[in-house]
Amino acid sequence: MPHLTSAEPGTTSTGFSTAFGIPGYAHPLVAPAEWAELTRPGTPLHWVVLNVAGGPGSRPDPHCLEAVGRLSNAGVRVLGHLDTAYGARPVGDLLTDARLYVDWYRVDGFLLDRCPTERTALPEVRRAVTALRALRDDAHIVLGHGSHPHAGYAENADQLVTFSGPWTEYRWSQVAEWTADYPPDRFCHFVHGVPRGHLDEALRIARWQGAATIYFTDRTDRTDRTGRTDRTGRTDRTDRGGRTDPWETMPGYWDEIVSRIGTGVSE
Fold first, then answer.
1. First to last CA, the chain
2. What is the pLDDT of residues 18-62, one digit of tens each?
């Protein structure tokens, strides 16, 4: 059974304590403050996802190279973003992107976003994970389901994202019974639209449901009628159907939640 492996010395912790998994901020040129904040000593991080342009991009990006270099020097694990399109993308395409991430950015593993959840897709995901592990020694693999998948997926990755969505759903969510067979460091929760006044409640839910890697933000997944800036700095009115990405910017209460998690309030 794969386990959550130890990271290099630095700010990253991979024990049972609660810490952040950053789903992927906007391009470092667009969000320099967000990326710089991640290297602040004492920030409780398990890993950070790099998504250059819906993947690794067409060539090495100097701004991303600089951001990844700072994180690596701080001992922070960086994961390349791979979009599985719910199983529609061929494994060969995923491996092509993965090789570029490894060659250009020396990533420590991968987040397989929009990962399927059904049992029938499990063999193909297993094949992809096996191939990815062959590309990078000790690759850290996170399956980004966004909901509870078939239990068999837990045997094929270091971590599973078992919730990704709004606070209005998270506060009433239920955990799958099979997750009790695994420690909290196997599960991740990404929740947007969490009001500042409900941070303690959100942290309690993560603890009760057994998720050690979290990311909570007050940003929301809402329609942006004025257009938005994509990861390369261009205004794009069509990306994500005209909806804003709640993960691209830092939550307004970043310092507060860092303090709470860093001092063990969520434990």
1. 26
2. 999 999 999 999 999 999 999 999 999 999 999 999 999 999 999
Scan for tokens 């057994």, then name that residue.
Answer: 210
How far is CA 68 from each of CA 2, 35, 74, 179, 244, rounded to the nearest angstrom?
25, 9, 10, 32, 24
Please tell me which of 5-9, 161-165, 226-230, 243-247 the model is most confident about, judged by mean pLDDT: 161-165
Residues in the chain: 267
Residue 25 backbone phi and psi in degrees, to 5: -70, 170
State pLDDT tens for residues 87-115. 999 999 999 999 999 999 999 999 999 99
Q: In sequence order, what are the residues at sequence separation of 6 or more whose Cβ sits closer than 8 angstroms to the Cβ of residue 186?
A: 4, 154, 158, 159, 160, 179, 212
pTM above 0.70, yes or no: yes
Q: Which of 102, 92, 94 is nearest to 144 (CA)?
A: 94
d(CA 119, CA 123): 8
Radius of gyration of the chain (CA): 17
CA-to-CA distance for 20 and 262, rounded, in angstroms? 10
